[in-house]
């Protein structure tokens, strides 16, 4: 594991601050620890046999990553931004009931996220995929308890357009065009490269092909 991170504090496990674009672990490494994001954004990805990259997720504050069923990391993990990461020994699960409960809740949410990703990737419309991505980020923000106005939801996009493209199975140019299209429709505003303000969440959900509630 890279040693570029610096200790910040102690808790269940070591909390370290990793600079942006720093590997946390590599695909194929032994999975002896799990990780929790205390701040910043982590990207997980898988390198395919043809050298292509498939991004498998973006992890934000409070989320766990690095869980593996067979003792080996199937994905790699790298910081998108500077990130505080808590490293927890798998053996700690045997004695920490609260940690087990957190992981169980996280696992259910990861199953839900995986199902949503599969639904997103089966959408033939690139516009629907990008809209679904923004809706997912908005729902995650709500899940963390962030206060938000349904007509003015700020979504941070610290990842690059290429990262979003590799996650959604699109090209970088297509992602940029679809974001601009959604802005032209009045569903979002793009004040800068790394921010999307959702101004019409129900309309964005319709574009994504998801159920509008409320």
Automatic annotation (TrEMBL):
Domain of life: Bacteria
Keyword hit for DNA-binding: yes
Keyword Transcription regulation belongs to the record: yes
Pfam families in alphabetical order: cNMP_binding, HTH_Crp_2
Signal sequence, start to end: none
SMART domains, A to Z: HTH_CRP (SM00419)
UniProt domain HTH crp-type: residue ranges: 124-202
Cyclic nucleotide-binding domain sequence ranges: 18-66
InterPro entries: cNMP-bd_dom, cNMP-bd_dom_sf, HTH_CRP, RmlC-like_jellyroll, Tscrpt_reg_HTH_AsnC-type_CS, Tscrpt_reg_HTH_Crp-type_CS, WH-like_DNA-bd_sf, WH_DNA-bd_sf
Keywords: DNA-binding, Transcription, Transcription regulation
Protein name: Transcriptional regulator
UniProt organism field: Algimonas ampicilliniresistens
High-level lineage: Bacteria, Pseudomonadati, Pseudomonadota, Alphaproteobacteria, Maricaulales
